[in-house]
Amino acid sequence: MKYIDLQVNGAYGVDFNSDSLTTEQFKFACSKLEESGVVGFLPTIITDSLDAMCKRLANIASIMESSPQLSGLVRGIHVEGPFLSDRAGFYGTHPPQHIKAANQRDAMRLVEAGRGRVRLVTLAPEQDAACETTRRLSDEGILVFAGHTDASFDMLKRAVDCGLRGFTHLGNGCIHQVDRQDNIMQRVLAFRDKLMITLIADGIHLPAWLLKSWLEIIGPTRSIIISDSMSAAGMPAGEYSIGNQAVLVEPSRRTRHRDHGYLAGSASTMADMARVLTETLSIGIAVREQIMHDNALAILAQ
């Protein structure tokens, strides 16, 4: 089976958010991802200082320019942050000192650092209250997804009207206890006919029963499985990193930030997630192909 993954922070011991990422390391991770069945992915740069994010984006852009043979595999870059919720729990493992309100100047600085390769930006609609950044990015042909957010129903509606196209890893990047009715998960599900919704299918970020329920509610035409993998994917348990942050990976494959214990990306590959869908949820191959390849391919082509 072949996979397209919209969110890869790293894999096989390689951290795409490292300031010292080399061409050789990036190519190695690419080759291992291909061996695992990935035919397209978005390396993902997460929240840090704007200077650090721009440096990392420029580095990946330079690697791509020097390695045109990777263009079929690397379908662009995903920028997750820094325009995320500044509320504890919602920002997850993104460093809060670097989270900020969205503005066109900083957004275009990130886009320019990626030299035409930024394909997807995840932001919190409440950090873009006038939707100016969402609209600008959309006008530039960049996909905008909401994530790490507690946007109200009206905020989400306004963002959708301004070009919001999807939601990043539903059920994660939010606080543990929420209102039983009016919460970000229920609000997003109310827009399931308008948004593509990504889900992490490692059996850890979402319990299997909830993952199955949401896949049925969202439907196969609007669901996209992502790995949200970090450098530990495909590697043994131990200590790894995302940028300057230390992440502990347990034998169970659960990740946790060394300092505060929040989940910090996934230590699973797309092939691992396909096994969860097949062996635990009994999802057939046609649906797996749609939610692990076809839907991602279609939205990237838009």
Descriptive overview:
Helices cover about 35% and strands about 20% of the residues. The protein is α/β, with parallel strands linked by helices. It has one domain: Metal-dependent hydrolases (TIM Barrel), CATH 3.20.20. Helix 2 packs parallel to helix 3. The two termini are about 25 Å apart.
Break the fold down into its secondary structure elements and pairings.
Blueprint (H helix, E strand, L loop, with lengths): L2 E6 L1 E2 L2 E2 L7 H13 L2 E9 L3 H17 L10 E4 L23 H10 L4 E6 L8 H8 L3 E4 L6 H9 L4 E2 L16 H7 L5 E5 L7 H11 L4 E4 L11 E5 L2 E5 L5 E3 L12 H11 L4 H16 L2
Parallel strand pairs: 1-4, 4-5, 5-6, 6-7, 7-8, 8-9, 9-10
Antiparallel strand pairs: 2-3, 11-12, 12-13
Helix pairs in contact: 2-3
Summary?
By secondary structure, the chain is an alpha/beta fold. It is 34% helix and 19% strand. It has one domain: Alpha-Beta Barrel (TIM Barrel).
